[in-house]
Amino acid sequence: MATLIGLFTFILHWSMWDMRGGPLPGYNILLYPGNLTLAYLWHPLFTEELPLLQKAGLLLTGQFMLVGLSVAVLRAGFGLLAVFIRQRCS
């Protein structure tokens, strides 16, 4: 779901840049995981400028990976918390 939201936001941001004269409000918030991976994961690996479609693909891949990893960590944490609470209450 985060990847679809990221794709929609990226397309809307790209197509409305001229009309708005700048970035779309909320763009940096919605695509923060993808932008984070572009800056700290993909940029050191690919130092030269990439075409738009490849950069969008890397952005969405990073969006998917970081959000998926965050959800997995949160689920594991809540699972451990539930086990801890059950043991304390028994």
Identify the notable features of this structure and list them briefly.
83% helix; mainly alpha; 90 residues; single chain
Radius of gyration: 18 Å
Oligomer: single chain
Number of strands: 0
What spatial form do the alpha-carbon principal axes imply?
elongated
Number of helical elements = 4
Report the sheet with the most strands, covering strand number, pairing sense and barrel closure. none
- The average pLDDT score comes to 87
Can you offer a commentary on this structure?
The chain has 90 residues and is mainly alpha-helical. The protein is 83% helix and 0% strand. It contains four helices and no strands. The chain has helices spanning 2-20, 27-30, 32-45, 52-89. Helix 3 packs across helix 4 (52-89). The termini are far apart.
Please give the structural blueprint.
Layout: H1 2-20, H2 27-30, H3 32-45, H4 52-89
Concise summary:
The chain is mostly helical and 90 residues long. Helix 1 packs across helix 4 and helix 3 packs across helix 4.
